[in-house]
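Section 3.1: Structural characterization of target chains.
Under the original work plan, the team committed to producing a structural model for every single-chain target entering the pipeline before any wet-lab resources were allocated. The record below documents one such target. The sequence was received from the expression subgroup and is listed exactly as submitted; it comprises 743 residues.
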Amino acid sequence: MCGAPAARIPAAYAASGRRAVRVTLVASAGFFLFRYGLGLPVAATYALFSAVALGGLSRIPGTGRQRAATGLRALPLCWLLVIVGTCLSVRTWSAVAGMLIVGFALAFAAVGGPRPAGAAPGLQLLYILPSFPPYDPGSLGERLIGTTTGLVLLIAAEALLLPEPAPPSYRQRAAHAAGTAAHCAALLAAPPYALSGTDSETARKAGAALRPLAVPEAERPAGPGLRDRALAHTGLATRTLLSRLALLTTPPGDDQGPRATAVLRAVAGLSTGTANSLGSGPAPVAAYEELAAARAHLAATSGPAPAGATPAGPAFVGAATAVGARPPVLPPAVLRRHAAVLEIADAALAMATAADLAVRGRRASVPVPPGRFWYATSRAPVLWWHRIRGHAGRRSVFFQNAVRIALALTAARLIAGVDTLPHGFWAMLATLTLTRTTMDETWSTIRRALGGTLAGALLTAGLLTLVGAHTEIYAVVLPLWMLLAFTLGPVKGVGWAQGLFTVLVALVFAQLAPPTWRLAEVRLLDVLVGSVIGAVFGLLAWPRGAHDELRHAAAELLRRAAEIVVATSADVAAGGPVAAAPLAVSGHRSLHRAVILAESAYAQFQSEPTLFGGRGRGAALPSVDWQATLIAGHHTLWGSERLLEPPPATLGPDAAESAAGLGDRVAGRMLLVSAALDPGCDTPAAPVPRLDLAGFTAEPPGAPRLYYATVSWLSALMTDLARIPRAGPAPEPATMTAARTGD
């Protein structure tokens, strides 16, 4: 900007500066057009505040074109909010009731992903502005004209002015990761049947690039729709595939296992096809069928193959039948490797299916097995209902945030209406912008905001006193000050933002009515009232934000996972379901919902500063790797579904006893860790013992492939649990004791 080389401008100022230029041009053009060109002050007000609402107050992620698309889709909703706010402003009680409903609905819309969440504050403002007196339905047309003009100009400016470079999309990241998996699988299928250190590091980086925290908000597949769910599933499956490829051991002895090698070659081919499909290439149907057949041959070789469908689909049955019922007896080391290769094949098949759904939706060509891809046949309203129902409870941080902000805005509207607070919507705007998800953060924000507002009020009082009624001076200063406010405010923090905005609103209203220095006094009073309301509801409604909720959600996830582990191990040991109801109908749904709640709590936890200083039970527990808990939940779901999709074969008494015993030990470990993460008042203070992996290497004689697949799954879960304490695989007792006491 201003002729300075782009390289000399810090990235934060460059980003806020581009947005400030767009908002300033649009808001000033709309305001001056209606205020001085057409003599419509109401339309001028709505044109300016509409641009400020969605361009300045909202934080819609993405490039300018992506924000323009979001604004275009939100345009009918903006009209509805202005209409409803105008109609309900007839009485204080109706405006208050409307604020409660609209405030909750707009805040709860964050369950739809980063874009609805980012647009919510601006949409709140578009309801707040018309919900105040005067009750004038005759001006509704002028209000809608101003709103439409401001938003249309903003959409055009976002799409056309100062374009930003687009980061790699999630599909591109997933395609790159799938290509990396193809390279790794090809190396493992040829001598020396191992990955070099460089290849392992490349695989690790490709998987890490798919982590949500490594992806810009606008590119994260976080929506409830089919394609977003499938793309997120693609990322999980690809990360799982890369990690399993990196851990695959070299074949024992001189026999390299031709069927295992054939599976790895097929994995490489399917991964290449998946990468091409994500890049808008054809669906990898032939490669999918090739891997399904190769997997079936290997499974039949490793042990008696059960009849019925498998994750590979009907191809498994035909291949298993062709192989025969008496496979050769293989040594345990080979069976262990075969189990690992079969898990690699399952991850590759899941990746290809999810990627095809993400690209082609319900027109996917790759076979879609039931269970794991339950969403493939559901319509958009059903998927939205699943997302809303999953968060419609007090344990959801989205629900908590929606309740907190709705109650705070409702109280602000009630106080402004009962006490006839001058410019009461400023108080509501302060409540909206200063309320945070934790009490400590809210109080820290309010302190800085009040200091900035006081400084801005003093500057405003001096400006209004000196300039008086010379409107042309305010008109000249307004765009310059707006550019300054929207450039410095987002970078310098809430104190600067509030101080600059205090002067900005004075410059606007000085052109709408005769100004006096008392306008600064009213602004300071309104911000003080809004801050107090925000602080009160920040204290009363879940004051610790996601910190405590993450504890509970992670512990609940592990408890649900422990139930699944016990039930799955018992089913495998018994050779069939032992529960009265199918596990996939009961326990899997509970664990899936627990994973959803834990993921949302973790996402909010990442955005909240740790201000508690380790006090009491609400400490942030920096020694806990929360994402490892989420990975354990996903691995429990996927492994259980994979083991139970075909009817389990009979293991034999020794193998059955070993599998059930190992499942009980893993479940017990999960319960111990869950109690450490979220202890009750009577939870024993004994530390969680060190990991004991004895038994995972024991091999009952004559154990079939299914036994080794089960042990491989349980061993992977123990590895996940070992990662939860950041201290390492064998945490010292003090580490988990601290987690229990919160010290």
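The first helix runs from residue 11 to 37.
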